[in-house]
Amino acid sequence: MARSLADRIEQYIKVLIARSENGQIEIQRAELAETFDCVPSQVTYVLGTRFTQREGYYTESRRGGCGYVRITEYNSEYLAVLLDNSELFRFIRELYDKQKISEGEAEIIRFLALNAGKSLPIEYQLKLNEGFIKALEQFYEK
Amino acid sequence: MARSLADRIEQYIKVLIARSENGQIEIQRAELAETFDCVPSQVTYVLGTRFTQREGYYTESRRGGCGYVRITEYNSEYLAVLLDNSELFRFIRELYDKQKISEGEAEIIRFLALNAGKSLPIEYQLKLNEGFIKALEQFYEK
DNA sequence: TAAACAAAGGTCAAACAAAGTCAATGGTGG
DNA sequence: CCACCATTGACTTTGTTTGACCTTTGTTTA
Lengths: 142, 142
Description:
Two copies of one chain form a homodimer.
Chain A: H1 5-19, E1 24-27, H2 29-35, H3 40-50, E2 57-62, E3 68-73, H4 76-97, H5 103-115, H6 122-139
Antiparallel strand pairs in A: 1-3, 2-3
The first copy, chain A, binds a DNA duplex (30 and 30 nucleotides) through residues 4-6, 28-30, 38-45, 49, 61-69.
């Protein structure tokens, strides 16, 4: 059961995240690769297979001097966002049922609500959700 | 975070602006460069990458004796103009022209883009604007 | 007053410093 | 034995730092 390199890197990153204050860490790809004595793209591979949205992670990065990779674990705050989303989703559903919007409109609105604010800090994502509801209310004159 | 020289200069300038009465400051390029012990064009680089219109800033300058660089942060009135003329609106138009979206969809998307983020700080409203573009690109598979 | 000088800021390209991509290859568990 | 995950490395893209040279503006001097 000798775990693969990728598995060990995965574990390592997860420990770092667990130890972090806010479920978020920043690493240097090349440095981590050095730690595990492998090529940098191995790290990219790990991120791409084990730290995806599906697994509950979000990664951002920057190239060039002082580049980094930031890995964020969706935490309870984020779940709050999703919860909040459900409120919004319910509202969209309502608009649809009342035939104020089409299925296509409902779909794009949902998608935008979920994705447009992704690069914002969590607390602003919450505000944004409210903003979506308010804006929709206004637009369709409840 | 805020590791590179450029990042630190950016932070410094932002603090100065935050402390200013009117969201506007004047600096001397050479002096600031001296403060950070770097070459003056480094400051120019920072201004050119982090204090552009896209980021919600406007810069003017003057050469020669008593030269200066003035950096102004857009206020909310200006922001409306900025958003209204944004890349996003052009993109929505494009989607419509290519018949990927209907007039109704274009309208609600525009409305959401302008209003959903209203309670956010200006810099995040701009980020949100970009988020809308990214999300739309993804949804309609560019 | 025109010419020279000094004092700013601007431009641009080269060198450097990351991270990303992709396709070929390797290895392993079922 | 073969499908599929893992590993590697050459190449690409993006971002930063530096310096040599340019332009504009204000000041001094012949």
